[in-house]
Amino acid sequence: MESIDNQWKKFLEEGDNLSFSLIYKKHIDELFSYGISLGIPTEICKDALQDTFYKLYITREKLHHVENITAYIFKTFKNCLINLNKKERHREKIVSFPNSFSIQVTVLDDIISNEKAELIKKKVESLLSKLTPNQREAVYLKYMIGLQHKEIAEVLNINEESARKLLYRAMEKLREYASQDNHPESLFLFTLLYLIR
């Protein structure tokens, strides 16, 4: 199968709908999970997905500068989420954009037995809850989605060095909390997730 970068090139140069479809299929589930993890309601996530890919499709002639399609799609999606959430908030007079980032740990179910998976899942979620929202988001983008530091920086609108530091500090905090709370299995999970990528 062709790489996403090759499919992106083909879509830009030839307007190839099959390539666009493959890009869509590759990213749709990860984007939806990302939106839910940001604390955005399901319907707004669905609308943002539609807006993101519609915008991508109709503006392709102007997107030849985009080198990393995955980072670009995540950044565009996040901006759509923010804009749609603001409109919805204005309509419903909700106080503010959710300032949380939660990660639902589901990878464990495929790795170990359900009983132990639930226990470790709770421990990992407990550890993650001690991180700042930005740290949780960076950990999610790195270990759940598999983005590189440069891509994470683009999605979070920070420079690459800041993304590296953010992830480093997050992992240091996780190690510290895991050792304090005696959760060595949780650190094993993060190591495993890193090696899987």
UniProtKB/TrEMBL annotation:
Q: Which SUPFAM superfamilies match?
A: Sigma2 domain of RNA polymerase sigma factors, Sigma3 and sigma4 domains of RNA polymerase sigma factors
CDD domains tied to this protein:
Sigma70_r4 (cd06171)
- All copies of the RNA polymerase sigma factor 70 region 4 type domain together span 123-174
Quick one: a GO biological-process term for this protein?
Answer: DNA-templated transcription initiation
UniProt GO MF annotations: DNA binding; sigma factor activity
Q: Which InterPro entries does this UniProt record tie to the protein?
A: RNA_pol_sigma-70-like, RNA_pol_sigma-70_dom, RNA_pol_sigma70_r4_t2, RNA_pol_sigma_r2, RNA_pol_sigma_r3/r4-like, WH-like_DNA-bd_sf
Per UniProt, the keywords (alphabetical) are: Sigma factor, Transcription, Transcription regulation
Show the stretches that span the lipid bilayer. Answer: none
Q: Name one Pfam family in it.
A: Sigma70_r4_2
- The protein's superkingdom reads Bacteria
User: What family, per the record?
Assistant: Belongs to the sigma-70 factor family. ECF subfamily.
Q: What is this protein called?
A: Sigma-70 family RNA polymerase sigma factor
Q: Which organism is it from?
A: Proteiniphilum saccharofermentans
